[in-house]
Write a structure and sequence with these properties.
Helix content is about 35%, strand content about 15%. The chain contains twelve helices and 15 strands. It is globular, with a radius of gyration of 22 Å. The structure holds pyridoxal-5'-phosphate. Pyridoxal-5'-phosphate (PLP) binds near residues 86, 87 and 139.
Length: about 425
């Protein structure tokens, strides 16, 4: 079993004509954070997302969140409503600006921002602070569209701009329209493990030419029009490199195939795991409005399910951080924290790991992160309960039908009784 090729969660797949664009960049000496590939990639993205949006290519999705917040006027002392169930890049840029994230829990259908809690939070912040939060950041977790109609209706009623974190939702649609085009701003990520990659990179979808120009100024150190460097505002060095944009252009030629493959893998998991008692595959609501890209497949395990080796879960302190973190790690001070996946989930992760299958817990909610212990949160228990029972399974272009069959066999093997 151990000489099997490892199946990773989601690997970058250079199956388009990436090298042609990279070669062109070298041949023409466009090896800077601007140039024909950056322009071409932005045009490709604009065509892809539609709705007459203008797109700025950036060095990361985190940078896109940061600039969108700046464009919404977020500054020191402000509050921003952020989905708690997410990767830290949705909320960290709020703190870069000296503002405070207000975390909103999820609903059970899509696992994304609960509209009822959102409205409760807006009213409560108004009552407590006398000021409206500056922006709303819903996230399309694992590609799943959030309850867009309801969130947008609330945002409009209270006149608060929406920054859609569609970092995981490249190509997902709601009622036929691309995620990231509903809000004032839309965030995309092209990190190495996302739907398409530029090795590292991101983009901000902006509503119009004026917003696009403003974001472009902030992304390039806010240089005024003089023959020398003149700065009237603080800017950032956030543009995407022309080399990386070349990878992006190549990836755009296979984007639709990638998305189709993710959906195919999800369907296989759904079919092959349908009969396993106590185990569920997270699927989109069947209203016909939702069209997730299914970036990753997520299963949940009933707490009563027994998994082989469960009694040993969390007995050893883990040595590396999840995802690698460049190999630089703090030694964990304990084998456990006060909020972690159930023992059977951890046991299944370890069982699959030994079978050369990478599985990962779902995002740990931000309101349970020590670094955000003082941030206000509006909760219903949903994200914390899913964190304890959820596990992400491999997806993406490198995962074959045979791999899925093998993964499902291993999951069934891991279950006792
Ligand atoms: C990946 C991701 C980001 C940020 O993207 P980077 O390109 O890694 O900076 C933001 N939000 C969510 C939900 C993500 O998954």
């Amino acid at each position: 079993m151990s000489d099997r090729k490892r199946i990773y969660l989601c690997l970058a797949h250079m199956s388009g004509n990436e090298m042609k664009y990279i070669q062109e960049a070298f041949d023409t000496n466009w090896v800077v954070p601007l140039g024909p590939n950056v322009d071409g990639f932005e045009k490709d993205l604009e065509t892809f997302v539609g709705q007459d949006k203008r797109v700025v290519a950036l060095s990361s999705g985190t940078a896109a969140v940061h600039l969108a917040l700046i464009a919404c006027g977020v500054g020191p002392g402000d509050e921003v409503l952020v989905q708690s169930f997410t990767f830290c890049a949705s909320s960290h840029p709020v703190t870069y600006l000296g503002a405070t994230p207000i975390f909103i829990d999820s609903e059970l259908d899509t696992w994304n921002m609960d509209p009822d809690l959102l409205e409760e939070a807006i009213r409560d912040r108004l009552a407590k602070t006398g000021r409206k939060p500056k922006a709303i950041v819903p996230v399309a977790l694992y590609g799943m569209p959030y309850k867009i109609d309801r969130i947008m209706e609330i945002a409009e009623r209270y006149d608060i701009p929406v920054i859609e974190d569609a970092a995981e939702a490249f190509g997902s649609r709601f009622k036929g329209q691309m995620l990231g085009t509903f809000g004032e701003y839309g965030v995309l990520s092209f990190n190495g493990n996302k739907m398409i990659t530029t090795s590292g990179g991101g983009a901000l979808i902006t509503p119009d030419a004026e917003a696009w120009r403003n974001i472009m100024m902030y992304a390039t150190q806010y240089r005024e029009s003089y023959p020398y460097y003149q700065h009237e505002k603080i800017g950032y060095n956030y543009r995407l490199s022309n080399i990386c944009a070349g990878i992006g252009r190549g990836q755009m030629t296979v984007a639709d195939a990638h998305i189709a493959h993710h959906r195919h893998i999800q369907k296989m998991y759904e079919e092959l795991l349908a009969e396993v008692p106590g185990l569920k595959v997270h699927s989109q609501p069947s209203t016909g409005e939702y069209d997730s890209n299914y970036w990753l497949c997520v299963i949940t395990l009933d707490p009563s399910l027994r998994v082989k080796g469960q009694e040993y879960a969390y007995k050893a302190v883990v040595k590396g951080a999840v995802g690698g973190a460049a190999g630089v790690v703090h030694a964990a001070s304990s084998a456990v924290t006060d909020c972690q996946p159930n023992d059977n989930v951890e046991a299944l992760r370890i069982f699959l790991d030994a079978a050369q299958i990478e599985a990962r817990p779902v995002w740990k909610p931000m309101h349970k992160q020590p670094v955000y212990r003082d941030a206000p949160a509006y909760l219903n228990g949903v994200s914390e309960s899913i964190f304890k029972i959820g596990l992400c399974l491999p997806a993406g272009p490198y995962v074959t039908d045979e791999d899925v069959e093998y993964i499902v066999r291993c999951i069934k093997d891991a279950l006792e009784g």
